[in-house]
Known about the structure:
Blueprint: H1 7-22, H2 24-31, H3 35-44, H4 68-80, H5 86-95, H6 102-112, E1 139-145, E2 159-165, E3 171-176, H7 181-196, E4 204-207, H8 227-235, E5 238-241, H9 251-263, H10 273-288, H11 300-307
Parallel strand pairs: 1-4, 4-5
Antiparallel strand pairs: 1-2, 2-3
Amino acid sequence: MSRSITQDMAYRQSLMKYTEKYGVSRAGRKYNRSRSYIYFWKARWDGTVQSLACQSRRPHSHPNQHTQAELKLIQDIRRRNPSLGMVELWHRLRQRGYTRRPESLFWVMRKLGLFPAPEKKKAYKPRPYEQMTYPSQRVQVDVKVVPRRCIADHELRLFQYTAIDEFTRLRFLAAYPEQSTYSSADFLKRLFKWYARRGIRVECVQTDNGFEFTNRFSNSKRDIPTLFEATATELGICRKLIRPYTPRHNGKVERSHREDQKRFYSCHSFYSLDDFAKQLAVHNRRSNNFPMRPLHWRSPLEVTVQYV
């Protein structure tokens, strides 16, 4: 496999060819290089550009490096005690005259390849993404905590509940003063009615594993359905949980939250829950009429109207 030719190597090759033709003195004046520099590379040059590559400047030896006797001692004890820990191995070496620090022992053992090979982990192979084929086939739901710097009253907490249809990217936003399973259930009822008014019946809702959605990771209430899950069953909506600690599986709603941070929360302030709800509704209308590249530069509302 041939090495890549860098710009410096090409420059030195041009210098060497000019030196062969016109001499060292004239090449030094033309290329503004010293004679010693030209002689240095001339001694290395064998006619190929690879010979003009910079070589490693690492020294071949060091005055404090391990001696052959020390290396043999380390290898012998390691061979007799393959499962011995680093500290205990160093302690046994000291009893046999080894005077170096544990850090030096660690580096020389790594260099000699005396550490056991780590177990090969099974590579995680993600499943291919399932493309949605019609509106409301799956709706991603998540909660965004409103930044405190946007709230005038610092004792007030505000939360944005977001639902986005994976096929049309049509979003529904709602404001809540708390992040709980009660708020989640109320939001589910509202989004079901909101999508129904636009001719879309929500079939499946996908959420993360937060306690506002599920008791999956609860120690005491694991088998008890949350109010959100009971409401979904009542409305005939299928529920889907993403893989734990994998927010990219809810990527569309996470991406929309990033756009909200850039276009909405970076330049707005809220004085109460009602004020936040009114401004959020205006932002929701604006975002649903905003053209998007995945929709071939059409807005989510246009795609929804055309499909329905």
